[in-house]
Design goal:
The protein is an alpha/beta fold and 246 residues long. It is 30% helix and 26% strand. The longest helix has 16 residues. It starts with a strand and ends in an 8-residue tail after the last helix. It binds adenosine-5'-triphosphate. One of its GO terms (molecular function) is ATP hydrolysis activity.
Length: 246
Amino acid sequence: MGSFECLRITGLSYGFSYHDFVIEGVNLTIPKGRFVSIVGPSGSGKTTLLKLLCGIYEPWNGDIEYICNNDRDSIFYHPSIGYVPQIETIDWNFPVSVQEVIAMGSWNYKSYLPWIDKKLKNQIKDVLRILGLGGYEKRHIRALSGGEQQRVFLGRALIRNPDVLILDEPTTGLDYVSREKIFDILKNLNNNGMTVILSTHDITHIANRSPWVVCFNKYVIAEGPPQDVLKEENLLKTYGLADYRP
Ligand SMILES: Nc1ncnc2c1ncn2[C@@H]1O[C@H](COP(=O)(O)OP(=O)(O)OP(=O)(O)O)[C@@H](O)[C@H]1O
């Protein structure tokens, strides 16, 4: 099997009600190993795009392809994807421990018996260590700070060591220290070869320090290194303050 080279999105469109496109004509290529921050206003379709990349939604039009270094393998190739949803969408009253949340990420349609065996326990320990949460296995998820909870959900995505890690606003609502911890963890994972794609409202601390930024509002408005892309002209177009359509 050839190796994964890039994620290629062409002419991608999707919506929730007939003829009303939430995202439209998205073209974007993300090479393996890239660290990408997607910025755009609330309601611009970032979450929708990320869910399409994960396969949670089916495109109305266009293609999402994970390309290998030869065409034949690309047809069959499905990278493993880790998804970290927006923290506000999680029900914190659900009675579950840190260990159980992370274990959920290792279960799939193939495993009917989702109990936590010794091997999985050790893998969870390793993931918690990477996340700076060593010894937190038995803690109830409610008994953690916002930053710690976010890291646990990152752990759930990491337990299968995905090729591509997709995160929806991973630092929203976190204080400076928690935000920096998450950013450092993501940079380390990326330095070790993981492709990281995240959405963020934090232009100053996250997007500005990401190697690659995509300005998004229904479609891609600009992309490139932050020093080239995060300019007034692009931000005005992205945040709907200037009329623009390529
Ligand atoms: N399940 C749904 N059913 C109907 N409309 C939806 C659904 N999910 C999202 N939308 C609508 O699609 C549009 C894009 O939403 P989306 O969550 O993708 O935006 P976003 O850029 O991620 O916003 P935010 O930054 O606030 O999270 C919004 O107008 C939203 O109301």
